[in-house]
Write a structure and sequence with these properties.
It is a single chain. The chain is an all-beta fold. The protein is 0% helix and 55% strand. The chain has no helices and 23 strands. The chain has an eight-stranded mixed sheet with strand order 1-2-21-18-23-16-14-15, with no helix packed on it. The chain has a seven-stranded antiparallel sheet with strand order 3-4-5-12-7-10-13, with no helix packed on it.
């Protein structure tokens, strides 16, 4: 659902309108077209191509498979995810960690639930790259919860040594807000939009009410105001609205 007010434009994706696939070992919700879910009106938001909300059963996961020319960000929400790839990386990523893989000219990886006794829940996010066929690379970093309490913490960026690097003019930020807190977010670059994804709770973004797992794309504006109507956790994905060379 597209909306326009003044010059700002928005697109609203309610949680219950997402694509869904349940394979037993994997329960996945797709904000954008993915796998067997295809909606021609929901293929991407700017350079944001995939936003999957995945739950993987104990001891299960994605076997080794290839990617190329995509920036792939994984954000565990609970549990532990075991990552292995063809660059030789063999890592565990946990709640509080953020991982990025620049697939570049080609990489193969697997993602498995590292635990035999509990589920792992994580977001898998794909962004079209700025430059194609770069050398594949991997990075991950741990971030403290207190650093995002009632403030915006940038965790992925092309220009911030405190964040992990991405091959795109894109910025990912997390914020945990206590009820009635209000914060402003300024979009980083002209021509970018921001996708607001509510991990938990209820917020109002420029008069639009969002609840758990709702998403709102905002563009053709410089800033937005986010008010927490309850304790809430949000993810902000600030990306170019124009896709180059794809």
């Amino acid at each position: 659902m597209y909306q326009k007010g003044n010059d700002m434009k928005t697109i609203l994706h309610k949680a219950d309108t997402r694509g869904h696939a349940n394979f037993g070992w994997l329960n996945s919700f797709h904000t954008f077209s993915f796998g067997q879910y295809h909606n021609p009106e929901r293929v991407h938001f700017g350079t944001l191509r995939v936003l999957n909300d995945d739950t993987v059963a104990p001891g299960m996961g994605f076997g080794k498979h290839p990617h190329d020319n995509m920036e792939i960000v994984s954000i565990p929400l609970s549990g532990d995810l075991h990552h292995n790839d063809s660059t030789g990386r063999d890592k565990i990523i946990r709640q509080g960690d953020v991982q990025i893989m620049s697939a570049g000219s080609g990489i193969a990886h697997s993602e498995m639930n590292a635990n035999k006794d509990k589920e792992v829940k994580f977001l898998q996010i794909w962004v079209f790259p700025k430059e194609k066929n770069i050398e594949p690379r991997y990075d991950q970093q741990s971030f403290k919860h207190e650093d995002r309490l009632n403030r915006i913490l940038t965790v992925v960026a092309p220009d911030d040594e405190q964040a992990i690097w991405i091959n795109q003019d894109a910025w990912f930020s997390l914020s945990d807000l206590t009820k009635d807190t209000s914060i402003d977010y300024t979009i980083h670059k002209e021509g970018n939009g921001v996708y607001v994804f509510v991990l938990k709770g209820k917020v109002t973004v420029n008069e639009q009410i969002l609840e758990t797992r709702d998403g709102l794309g905002v563009y053709e504006t410089e800033k937005l105001t986010i008010k927490a109507d309850s304790d809430a956790e949000i993810l902000l994905i600030d990306i170019p609205m124009q896709i180059q060379g794809v």
